[in-house]
Amino acid sequence: MSTKTIGSPTRSRPVPELLPEEKKRITPKRPRDYLCWAVAIAIVGGLVHTTVTNENYQWPVVFSYFTTEAILDGLVLTLVLTVASMVLGTLLGLVLAVMRMSHQAPISGLARLYITFFRGTPVLVQLIFWFNIAALYPNVSIGIPFTDISTPVDVNALMTPLTAAIVGLTLNQAAYMAEIIRGGFASVNRGQHEAADSLGMSGFTRLRHVIIPQTMPAIIPATGNQVIGMLKETSLVSVLGVAELLNSAQSIYARTYQTIPLLIVASLWYLIMTMALSVPQSMIERRFSRSTRRPAPVAVATKESLL
């Protein structure tokens, strides 16, 4: 947005002037616009009508199970899995992104191998693999290298369904977050790195105070989408027997044979949580997008400038 001045030279004030892309174009309605609205309203109306009038949906059953204790417990566990996997996956993804951008070929190669493997295999396969990892390593020893100090660990007892779910989701999420963070790092101008070097900043200080703050506008939108995706991917851990939202619904309709109503309950809760997460995501995106816009200089005409 630029500015222009009005009034006398001695007493002038800036008046904001909209840029061409900020001005709304007013176009007259055409017949096809009304036709599109009519078709959209007809489709939505038909869906609402069949949803309300079709008794096979069993809406009374849906409402009766919507806030039951088992469903709410599964809802809480779903949120815990989402938060834990995203936090741990983001931290590990940051480490992988730094490794991926390293000039040392072995370090960069290890990070690239990790990202390729976990992005190239399905999440469900990874979850089942970690749940059955004891078939490969039934016992491991954790200790101090080059000493006799070690502690044997029973992997079968350690890798519970919940532990396998967190490990599998975290490791998979780290691969995607590493690429998102690396893309954010690549968006920082090379001159910023050179300026940090000229100030004598260490690698960690440069990363913390120069690089990461400037990567946030590029990272936040993609990270928000990953959070929403992770929320829905937690439904996959139901195959491990973890009592999250979908598994809780499955355990109920396995007893009552009311499959469709319980699936509707789970779907509605996923939809509500997704919409709830979209609101702060949009607010954060708008905040960072405003911070990256530099206000145009205000041109104020003065008596001296006109002489």
UniProtKB/TrEMBL annotation:
This chain's protein is named Amino acid ABC transporter permease
Signal sequence, start to end: none
Lineage, uppermost ranks: Bacteria, Bacillati, Actinomycetota, Actinomycetes, Pseudonocardiales
Provide one Gene Ontology cellular component: ATP-binding cassette (ABC) transporter complex
Q: Where is the composition biased (Polar residues)?
A: 1-11
The protein's organism comes out as Lentzea alba
Ranges where the record places region Disordered: 1-22
Question: What compartments host this protein?
Answer: Cell membrane
Please give, as recorded in its UniProt entry, the membrane topology of this protein: Multi-pass membrane protein
Citing just one GO molecular function, the answer is: transmembrane transporter activity
* GO process terms (BP): amino acid transport
Q: Which family does it belong to?
A: Belongs to the binding-protein-dependent transport system permease family.
Q: Which Pfam families match?
A: BPD_transp_1
**Which keywords annotate this record?**
Amino-acid transport, Cell membrane, Membrane, Transmembrane, Transmembrane helix, Transport
> Which spans are transmembrane here?
34-54, 74-99, 111-131, 260-280
Domain of life per record: Bacteria
ABC transmembrane type-1 domain spans which residues? 75-281
